[in-house]
Design goal:
The protein has 142 residues and is mainly beta. Helix content is 6%, strand content 44%.
Length: 142
């Protein structure tokens, strides 16, 4: 199947000029996988276009981390930063993990004014032999 690349932003709808316009921006996504690396932190890096708004992070833990002490997920503008996400327990049971956002994180997610690197980091304490899954970041390009 072919793919197309557009230089957005893309607006969709049929009526932008009435009192009740129905035009909006589509939600876009990027997905990457992660696999544990013993006692080393694991980074998953995304590149967002300028003027994006981060909607959410979907963290699908296919195999929960088995670190000796802890395995914590965070997301920000660099490795280990908590600009957008903090305190996700990657040792929790496998399944979709839902981060809880602070007001400061929601404010930071509201407007990415320049091309921005977003790094989701899983930091472990203790030996790890299992842990993998995928991270999906959803965003709107305005």
């Amino acid at each position: 199947m072919g793919q197309s690349t557009l230089s957005g932003p893309l607006r969709l709808g049929t009526d932008q000029d009435s009192a009740t316009p129905n035009v909006g921006y589509p939600i876009l996504s990027q997905t990457a996988t992660y696999t544990q690396n013993s006692t080393t932190a694991v980074d998953v890096t995304f590149y967002l276009p300028a003027n994006s708004q981060i909607v959410s992070f979907l963290i699908d833990s296919l195999v929960a981390y088995d670190s000796g002490t802890s395995a914590t997920g965070s997301a920000g503008v660099s490795t280990g930063a908590t600009t957008y996400v903090s305190g996700v327990d990657m040792k929790a049971t496998a399944g979709r993990l839902s981060p809880t956002f602070t007001a400061a994180q929601l404010t930071a997610m509201a407007n990415i004014t320049t091309n921005t690197t977003v790094v989701f980091t899983i930091t472990v304490v203790g030996a790890t032999t299992a842990g993998n899954g995928r991270i999906t970041i959803t965003y709107i390009q305005r």
